[in-house]
Structures are given as C-alpha cells and as structure tokens.
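Notes, p. 3: input format for complexes.
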Amino acid sequence: MSVPFIRKNDQVIVRQGKDKGKTGKVLSVDPDKGRALVEGVAMAKHFIRPDRSKNVQGGIMEKESRIPLSRLMLFCPDCAEGVRIRSKKLQDGTRTRVCVKCGTVLEPGK
Ligand SMILES: [Zn+2]
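Output follows (110 residues plus zinc ion):
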C-alpha cells in the first residue's frame, strides 16, 4: 500500500497556477475529490450577507479555496524546495515519508 502523498499539517509548496511558489500548511485534504485546503493559498473572496439576528456585519472575507493535489509538492525544509518523496519502512513496521534528495523524514507533527 502506498503512503498518502499529502496529509493534513504537511508543509507544501504550490507548483502551478497563480500561487506558484507559495508555501503553506495543509489545513485539510479531500481524498475523494483529490483536493486540499492550504493555508494562505488560493485565497478567494467570499461575500457575507449581513444578518442582524445573528449579529453578522457582512462584507467581503478572504478565505482559502481547495486546490488540486496535483499542484502541490511536499516542502522539504532542508532542501528549501518542493521535493519528491519516497516511502520508507521503519523498524517497527510503520511507513514514513522521506525526501528523495536529502533523506529527511517529512512527517510533521511527529
Ligand atoms: Zn530534502
């Protein structure tokens, strides 16, 4: 079984599109749609309707929108760039992801 390519809390870099070169933390992944929400990436304006009963002022709010996983690469802090990863089996049998270039383990939150 392959290790999921990108997961929540990963540091990623955008490879394509208007946010190319931006890095950010993965806020959530939607594996069914193959999309992810990345902090500060693909900001889109959302219009909020004022609602007095809920004490909502209304206006324009900027919020991330989901982008295809194919546009993302894991970001390696040691290489300071987007890198390809490989799966490595640890002694206890669990799999981890490592940078192909420098061998750094890319498992945020561990
Ligand atoms: Zn690296």
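The longest strand covers residues 23-30.
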